[in-house]
Specification:
heterodimer, A: about 240 residues, alpha/beta, 4-stranded antiparallel sheet, about 35% helix, B: about 290 residues, two-stranded antiparallel sheet, 11 helices
Chain lengths: ~240, ~290
């Protein structure tokens, strides 16, 4: 059974229909990529899954729960975390306070400390800068903080929106390595990326979104070899 | 010299009340990005609630104070739920006009219930005045200063050290991201209105013990001055509201004593104009580029 199952989802902003009935699923343990051009509806899709936007129609199920109409703040507790586009760390809070915010729904203090030390192990730079305001970090460090913050909720499924956007090439490679590590340690990943090449290189499966519809879907390596994908998204 | 010190103490006392009220404006602005123009009238409700408790219900003073605080907290939450929450996505102007409407509503309800004739009110603070080196400080002033200090320390600790306080700071920065952390944004906004209203109740109690007369519009002037104090300190900034309130009280008191009683308000607002010309974001406010 799919971990996340989206069925015939439609989302609109007023009269403009951004998502026109898409279906996709994510299975436990996978990295699934959602690729597509600017404005194809990738971010809208993620925001609807995590409850920041409401669906017009369709169904979103997570681990057997119908979460279509569930408010965003209740979804985190089910084990789904979202690393939003543009990182959106709390600039006026320290790195440590940001990380603690990630564990907001968890109660057990010793378990939180345990997760915190794991996050610091994965991102040593965050520990070095724990008392610094998040707004003073570099773009790459903020991306790490946004990921660390999401991991603090101990998610089963992590949604990442354009994690490589605006980062220098060195950071881009590092971020993709980290996404793979996170996946290998047992967290399922739904990845939205404009950098289709990198995304397909680490993903198991992928969906290609075009103006609110799923145009193509399949195994990542098949899509990498697909002529129309090559032309439209890989610049070959 | 003695006189100057007395004036400064007076200013500190008035300024404390402004600061308590300004905190409500600034916290609500920080979290809901709106100017709650009905905030001043919460002070009035707090003062009347105290009067009802003490004079009409003959409650012990502590119970009457508690009643006043609870009434204001519940009123703050209710106003937000009924009037502002449905406008969360409306243009700021609609929210502003609604807030002014709520202000009129509260004033006119008070007018309906308690009539327009001012009601004399005996201060509930029975602390003797203190003389230090020939300077006399009244009991009300001492209580005002102490209560304000305690409120500010508790508020600062709450905002910076507790889980709910961090949630509040997170929501004021980015509601969407806060929601993704599992923070119930609506509940956090409610809490902010409740805290602002509790501070307004405390301010109302202290205010009415100084001025000892109740009328339905009593919250208007301290309300608007506290709003000025919040802007002076940097709207949205909590230490800024504290500083702005105190500075405003001091300027007002000195202006009244040494320049002109009639001109004191003009001087206060003049200072605001000058400060905003030099520092548009207020004394402690940060210049931020609004993201589009």
């Amino acid at each position: 059974m799919a971990m996340l199952k989206v069925t015939d989802l439609k989302v609109s902003y007023g009269v403009i229909q951004a998502i026109k009935g898409i279906s996709f699923e994510v299975n436990k343990g996978e990295i699934v990529a959602l690729i597509g051009a600017n404005g194809a509806g990738k971010t809208t899709t993620l925001h609807t899954v995590t409850g920041l936007l409401s669906a017009q129609s369709g169904k979103i199920e997570y681990e057997g729960h119908d979460i279509t109409r569930m408010p965003g703040h209740k979804i985190v507790a089910l084990g789904m975390a979202h690393v939003p586009e543009g990182r959106r760390v709390f600039a006026e809070l320290t790195v440590l306070e940001n990380l603690k915010m990630g564990a907001y729904t968890r109660k057990d203090k010793t378990e939180i400390e345990d997760t915190l030390s794991k996050v610091y192990k994965r991102f040593p730079r965050l520990e070095e800068r724990k008392n610094q305001l998040a707004g003073t970090l570099s773009g790459g460090e903020q991306q790490m903080l946004a990921m660390g913050r999401a991991l603090m909720s101990k998610p089963e499924l992590i949604l990442m929106d354009e994690p490589s956007m605006g980062l220098s090439p060195i950071y881009v490679n590092e971020i993709f390595d980290i996404i793979q590590e996170i996946n290998h340690s047992g967290t399922t990943v739904l990845l939205v990326e404009q950098n289709a090449k990198k995304a397909l290189a680490i993903a198991d499966r992928a969906y290609v979104l075009e103006t609110g519809n799923i145009a193509l879907e399949g195994k990542a390596e098949e899509l990498l070899a697909n002529d129309s994908v090559k032309k439209a998204y890989l610049g070959e | 010299m003695k006189n100057v010190i007395e004036q400064l103490i007076n200013g500190l006392s008035t300024g404390s009340i402004y600061a308590l009220i300004a905190l409500g404006y600034t916290m609500v602005y920080g979290i809901a990005r709106m100017i709650n123009f009905a905030h001043g009238d919460i002070i009035m409700v707090g003062a009347y609630a105290l009067y009802v408790g003490v004079s009409l219900m003959n409650l012990p003073i502590a119970a009457a104070i508690l009643l006043s605080i609870i009434v204001c907290a519940v009123l703050g939450i209710t106003v937000e739920k009924v009037a502002y929450k449905p406008l969360r996505k409306a243009p700021p102007l609609a929210v502003l006009i609604t807030a002014i409407g709520v202000s009129f509503l509260l004033q006119n309800l008070a007018l309906l219930i308690f009539k327009a004739t001012p009601i004399p009110f005996q201060s509930v603070i029975q602390v003797p005045s203190v003389s230090i080196g020939g300077i006399t400080i009244s009991g009300v002033t001492i209580v005002t200063l102490v209560m304000t200090l305690i409120s500010m320390v508790i508020l600062t600790l709450f905002i910076n050290q507790t889980r709910a306080g961090s949630a509040m700071r997170a929501v004021s920065e980015d509601k969407g991201a806060a929601e993704l952390m599992g923070i119930n944004v609506n509940r956090t906004i409610s809490q902010t209105f409740a805290i602002g209203s509790v501070l307004a109740a405390i301010a109302g109690i202290l205010y009415i013990c100084q001025y000892q007369s109740l009328r339905p519009t009593l919250g208007a002037l301290p309300g608007i001055k506290a709003f000025v104090a919040a802007v002076l300190g940097g709207i949205g900034n909590v230490p800024g509201a504290m500083l702005g309130g105190i500075v405003l009280g001091l300027i007002e008191s000195i202006a009244k004593a040494y320049i002109s009683t009639e001109l004191s308000d003009a001087i206060v607002f003049g200072v605001l104009v000058v400060v905003l010309l030099v520092r548009p974001s207020g004394l402690l406010g940060k210049l931020k580029n609004e993201k589009v």
